[in-house]
Amino acid sequence: MTRLTREACAALDADDPLAPFRDEFHLPEGVIYLDGNSLGPLPKATPERLRQAVEQEWGTGLIRSWNDAGWIDLPFSLGDRIGRLIGAGPGTVAVADSTSVNVFKQLAAALALRPGRRVIVSEATNFPTDLYMAQGLAALLDRGHELRLVSAEEVPAALGPDVAALMLTHVDYRTGAMHDMAAVTRAAHAAGALMLWDLAHSAGAVPVDLDGAGADLAIGCGYKFLNGGPGAPAFLYVSKAIQETYRQPLTGWLGHADPFAFEPGYRPAAGIARATTGTPSILAMRALEVGVDQMLRAPKAALRAKSLALAETFMAAMAQETAGQGFRLLTPADAARRGSQVSYAHEGGYAIMQALIARGVIGDFRAPDILRFGLCPLYVRHEDVWDAVRTLAEVMRSGEWREARFARRGKVT
Amino acid sequence: MTRLTREACAALDADDPLAPFRDEFHLPEGVIYLDGNSLGPLPKATPERLRQAVEQEWGTGLIRSWNDAGWIDLPFSLGDRIGRLIGAGPGTVAVADSTSVNVFKQLAAALALRPGRRVIVSEATNFPTDLYMAQGLAALLDRGHELRLVSAEEVPAALGPDVAALMLTHVDYRTGAMHDMAAVTRAAHAAGALMLWDLAHSAGAVPVDLDGAGADLAIGCGYKFLNGGPGAPAFLYVSKAIQETYRQPLTGWLGHADPFAFEPGYRPAAGIARATTGTPSILAMRALEVGVDQMLRAPKAALRAKSLALAETFMAAMAQETAGQGFRLLTPADAARRGSQVSYAHEGGYAIMQALIARGVIGDFRAPDILRFGLCPLYVRHEDVWDAVRTLAEVMRSGEWREARFARRGKVT
User: pLDDT tens-digit profile of A112-138?
Assistant: First the structure.
């Protein structure tokens, strides 16, 4: 294998059809940002869009903006645009609540659609909040529902006639491993179960075709690869095939058939609207919309090609520059099974990441020993990857990560 | 009774200790805004605070702002500040989700704390989303829970040994009638039930003393009298007395005892944090914080005194200027039983409100026949009330409200 160099990385960047997008982001001086899988950076267009929403829509339009600025339709008009990023047709996606709340709604709906079945299957290593919400739902129902947690390999065997729903995160938050959405969905359906996908690390990051895969339900996140801002609203998907029979328990006014009739009894709205609950933050949706519209302008094939190429560069640079330093690759070598991040285990992971951040290379750490590096093709360059790995090599070579100032403390790791 | 005049109103305004607050709001030219009970106006400080949160905290701080800018504590630090407006001590209020979602959490928690009891009592005319959420919860539980809907007068008689929770909106969204929080809470407790207050039309509008009244649970809204912006995050209150035994079913990562340990099993956090669920919008909380901090600067006694005085002026002007026009006052004459709005019924209510709005006086309409006027003492003047009523009188005198352009249509009334 030829030796990787900074010049070779620069040559890849020179050929990058997505290169112009980088200038659309506010990227702080002296920072290489590889944590867009946790919080996407600020699109330069967002402050002006928010200023306009605040000063014009809220400040001047006041209550009239619910009609005049289209606020009342925003969960659905923005949902439709997110749908185009995840292979979901118009009227199947709504922006609503948080990913956690949406998991609860979707699982409750799935159990109601499979009343004789009492099992939810998921991965033991799924993102914890998904599991917590399933636990909360099962405890609330108190009817003997079981959350059956298995490894990814054990999923097919876990799908029996007692399974109401299979809930998986499409791209693993720790390792970046990606499920075959179509194949797994088929397996769930073959067992008579509904398929719920968590797209937190997929939307805007990898090709997704929910309608094509025949998925039933999905949820996703606005603040990671969609660059919607901290705590951006989440979204949920309900396939056309089950919308008429879909019922979720958080039956708030926005999901009512006639929200402004103020009837005392709940009647579900037609279509995806019945999956919504209360009033979402308009300002937060205006910020999210900028990230989504930007992502829609990027050619999908180029996004995936560059994402995979960045990961190849990262892994090659790591192999070359940090060999023997104790890093163990967690991300699948097979490109078809990878999301848009690269992860390594290292027993000193926490301190190493702190030392790396102190040098301006921002990835993140996940317990117990995982260093994660998000590779967002809209703004990360091959040169950035090279510089990040070289900095990591320097952190290891110098031994600075062993200094007391990088030892674990604080709330957010 | 002396005849009310514009000059008399101006004299009241000249004596108003809250007058300087008006200039802190962006109030559009040519508009008299009496709909702050639906969506509060924009504080002038909000755009700059949001710009700073977007550009500095998100843009430059990126993921580091979860610690460095205090994002992780914001639901609780802002909750504590809201607590000071509603008589709730530190550690009893969190900013979270929407009011609808919070109703679900609080009711589920109440039922869990009263396992032998199957009835939730509320008013038939309570805000519909509160009733919808109770219906959704009861249907999900499928264990014979009953939502017992009565009139305000019938509440004491409805409180039997089968009642788990009494859920009331403190200030009625239609009429502006206010419950006696301490007395009603005592009645609920005497029956062994938990008391859940909806403060949507109370927080920032009327004196509230949750701790003093011995209330168990409450929820409230950020976008009405707290001026937090469209769809601002909601809040919830859990009294210190029941926090240790409180369990709610939307057990998301933010409510976990150790959110960053990424354990597979949920363990509730200590204190109010267990009432939270997923990641809230940081930008939306930064906007809400401006409205809350502003409200905290206003002397509480002056707020209530002016609110009541504005209502007296409104009612006197209506009696004098629109006598014989078919308006029926819905708001209690007794000041101790009033919130911070005045409402009238009129069979032509919808069209009259549209005609009024067309002339720049913004109140709102609620089905079937109610005109609502919110009276927010921070920015509404007695002169505004006078001008609003005179404009309404002109709308009636001219008969313009009968024009076809004001007939009912559209989504948001």
Answer: 999 999 999 999 999 999 999 999 999
